[in-house]
Design brief:
Elements lengths: L2 H4 L1 E3 L13 H7 L4 E4 L5 E5 L2 H9 L3 E2 L33 H9 L5 H25 L2 E3 H6 L1 H11 L6 H11 L6 H24 L5 H8 L4 H32 L9 H9 L8 E3 L3 E3 L2 E3 L4 E4 L1 H5 L33 H18 L4 E2 L21 E3 L1
Parallel strand pairs: 1-2, 3-9
Antiparallel strand pairs: 2-3, 4-6, 5-11, 6-9, 7-8, 10-11
Length: 391
């Protein structure tokens, strides 16, 4: 029996009542080489759990993020990275040099300076949501009342998407990022969002505004069809991941109140929760050695973000929430050329959300035992379906 055959495990999925990251991640890191797993679709893929190895996968030009290549890991027909025939402009599923064209066009819109200019708008949105919660009484679902609408309002304002349609795209996004959705349900939800955004881009061609989509149309480096896919990626990524980070962060800060008000919490919360654990799927284009293991061309690779961010070889006592640590080398936003374009926006939203929420509602507390909270064990992204709070 080969080492690879010995190192084959069931996929270490999340289970209700069990902590995240799964305990199996520590076992994966402790094993020599890498570990193979079956994805339930009849295909196998390599699991990469050590911090050093995850960063190596995400920066190796012989390893692709394009789902069109044979062997790319899939959890189902529509689970994972959409192909260009499904969503044109979904540039995180492209390799250089094609990926570079999209990245070069979008980077100027998400620089530190640009996001700093957006901070007054973020503050206005956050204050508005706190005002609404306080006006409604002394209890709330913090996900529905704050964590989700804050990034949703910000990204729709930035893109020029009418917030009046937020229930539509939030509901369709939930279908897309939930493992329990069927392939047909996810396919239909994706088509509906793309159809909506295609119509919106066409309207902005006729009546441009001062929003991001109008500016990108005017730049002319992306086709309207590509821009519809870009808009879908930014819209979904811009509200779903940040909402999960905000809600999980509130739970952690309420359990560690001594850190409330410290700006260092954002980086540590990003590392600690690693909500996009299963996002950066890859496939080898050539034979490549990672972590002492030979990965053959055409074999799928799953870099486990949460496993890397809880690697004791990279972070001392990684299971401990410690904002005083130097955590900037985490891979919560990925690594290399595909590192999350919106990371500066996410950091600003999280910082302003925590600072304002705890300042304006200092008596905030969770209104249920943490163990009974509805965590997203069924989600591609980890987070909370709801967070009952009182003050």
């Amino acid at each position: 029996m080969t080492n690879a055959e010995q190192n084959t495990v069931d996929f270490p999925g999340r289970r209700p009542g069990c902590p995240f990251p799964p305990a199996e991640y520590a076992d994966l890191r402790a094993r020599p080489g890498l570990v193979r797993t079956s994805l339930g679709t009849g295909t196998k893929a390599w699991l990469v759990a050590r911090h050093e190895d995850v960063r190596a996968v995400l920066t190796d030009h012989r390893i692709s993020s394009d789902p069109a290549h044979a062997g790319f890991p899939r959890f189902g027909r529509t689970r994972g990275v959409p192909g260009r025939d499904q969503v044109p402009g979904w540039f995180v599923g492209m390799d250089p040099p094609e990926h570079n064209r999209f990245r070069k066009t979008l980077i100027p819109e998400f620089t530190v300076r640009k996001i700093k200019e957006l901070q007054p708008e973020i503050q206005r949105v956050v204050d508005g949501r706190v005002d609404a919660m306080l006006a409604a009484g002394n209890t709330a679902d913090l996900v529905a009342g704050f964590a989700l609408p804050v990034p949703s309002l910000v990204i729709t304002t930035l893109l020029g998407v009418p917030y009046a349609d937020h229930e539509f795209f939030e509901a369709k996004t939930r279908v897309l990022v939930t493992f329990t959705s069927t392939d047909d349900e996810r396919e239909a939800a994706g088509k509906e969002i793309l159809r909506y955004l295609t119509r919106l881009v066409a309207l902005k061609q006729q009546r441009p505004g001062s929003d991001l989509l109008s500016r990108l149309l005017a730049a002319g480096t992306l086709t309207p069809r590509e821009l519809s896919g870009v808009a879908m990626l930014l819209l979904i990524g811009g509200h779903e991941t940040t909402a999960n980070n905000i809600s999980l962060g509130v739970v952690t800060l309420l359990a560690n109140r001594e850190w409330i008000g410290d700006d260092r919490v954002v980086e540590e919360l990003l590392r600690f929760h690693s909500v996009a654990d299963l996002v950066p799927l890859r496939v080898a284009l050539e034979d490549v050695e990672i972590g002492g293991e030979l990965i053959r061309a055409g074999e799928g690779i799953i870099p486990l973000v949460a496993a890397a961010n809880h690697d004791s070889g990279a972070f001392s006592c990684p299971a401990r929430f410690d904002p005083a640590r130097a955590a900037r080398h985490h891979v919560a936003f990925g690594y290399g050329v595909h590192q999350c374009l919106g990371q500066n926006l996410v950091r600003s939203e999280m910082a302003i959300a925590y600072r304002t929420l705890f300042k304006r509602i200092p008596t905030l507390e969770i209104a249920a035992p943490v163990a009974e909270l509805p965590f997203k064990y069924d989600g591609i992204l980890f987070g909370l379906h709801a967070l009952p709070v009182k003050w």
